[in-house]
Amino acid sequence: MPTYRANAIVLKENDCLKDDRLFNIYTKEKGKIQIRITGGKKIKNKLAAHVQPFFEIDMLIAKGRSCDRVAGARSAVNFSGIRNDLCKTAAACCLQEVVDKLCKIQVPDDRIYSLLFNYLKLIEDSRLKSWELEKLISFFSLKILGFLGYRPWFEICVYCQKKVFGDKVYLLPAKGGIGCSRCVKDNDKHVTVNKKTAEILGLAYLENTDNLLRLKIEKNQSEEISSVAKKFLEYQLEKPLLSFEFFRTCL
User: Fold this and answer.
1) Global pTM value
2) What pLDDT digit, counting tens, does each position of 212-222 carry?
3) Would you call 217 helix, strand, or coil by DSSP?
4) Sign of CA dihedral 67, 71, 77, 79
5) Correct CATH for 3-78 of 3.30.110.70, 3.90.1310.10, 2.40.50.140, 1.20.1260.10
6) 76 DSSP 8-state letter
7) Phi and psi for 240 in degrees, rounded to 5?
């Protein structure tokens, strides 16, 4: 049976009958894939101990007809600082759910793998307050949307393509951006947000993460940023993000 090596991060464990364990993982080499650990529910299984959330894992994977199988695994990077903190665990689960829900099977993208790894590291090392982790999740989500071609536009009106003036702008998830008071129609499903919030969201695509974290953002503005990012995500997914609700209970 042919095998291949992959660096992987666990996204989700799926329900599986019998004694096997089934995972969605994101790899550098093949993007998101599904893998099986034969007998993974058995206490004495050695592979299962290495295939866990909040690790980067060096895997040897055997190709299968319907699902590839883990033939070997070694923990390469241990994000132990995440597992030891409930709020950080909840934040990391948000990143994993975003990647799992948005990414299709076997569509590799080095940018997504690197972004996921780097943001997990940021969460682990972060001394940010719990509510400040919220903006990290928002910036991550918007960057992933951008990589996948769903980038919302916060710089100009999606209708007239002109700069939006005034203190408030109209958020239009179905149109992929914001609108101005002159162009937004009565039947447009929209949410009014602060223009400064829209400007910060636009920076998510232009600035590196270090610069984004240096932005002075108050708690109420961070909550609005998170709400905007969540609306765009859920519009694309057409379903709620459960991990985001769990994270809110930790604040």
Assistant:
1) 0.91
2) 888 888 888 88
3) coil
4) positive
5) 2.40.50.140
6) E
7) -75, 160
